[in-house]
Amino acid sequence: MTDASTDPTDSPARTGWFESSRFGLFVHFGLYSLAARHEWVRSREVMSQQEYDRYLDRFDPDLFDAGQLPRTARESGMRYAVLTAKHHDGWSAAASG
Q1: Using an 8 Å Cβ cutoff, are 82 and 25 in contact?
Q2: How many Å apart are CA 27 and CA 25, to the nearest integer?
Q3: In sequence order, which residues have a C-beta less than 8 Å from that of residue 28 and are 6 or more positions away?
Q4: Which of 11, 21, 55, 71 is geometrically suited to a Cys-Cys bond with 31, CB 3.0 to 4.6 A?
């Protein structure tokens, strides 16, 4: 394990923006977002495939408004956003909306 005090990737010059920005958005796009808990909902809660598939039946990526997301974030005072372009389930937020 690297000591944070000697790790150049953890230096204030690299991470200072994050600390000063304070409020941001992390977006994960996939079936697990319907569970509204966490991205590892299936494995952490030991869901069967059948239980998890109920989200597939309700997930409609065409209803996602990719343009509204940054507008709402900015209006809320967020200073940055991190978008997961493609994640565990294979859905791509960039291809939707």
Answers
A1: yes
A2: 6
A3: 39, 84, 87
A4: 55
pLDDT tens for 13-66 read 888 888 888 899 888 777 888 888 877 888 899 999 999 999 888 888 787 788
Q: Give the whole-angstrom CA distance, residue 18 versus residue 79.
A: 9
Burial class of residue 52 in the structure, from the number of CB atoms within 10 Å of its CB (0-12 exposed, 13-18 middle, 19+ buried): middle
Does pLDDT of 96 surpass 60? no
CA–CA gap between residue 50 and residue 56 (Å, rounded): 10
Taking the C-alpha atoms of residue 96 and residue 51, their distance in angstroms, rounded to an integer, is: 25
Give CA–CA dist 22/79, Å, rounded. 8
Q: Which two tokens stand for residue 44?
A: 């952490």
- DSSP letters, 54-86, are HHHHH--GGG--TTHHHHHHHHTT--EEEE-SB
- Token digits for 60? 């409609």
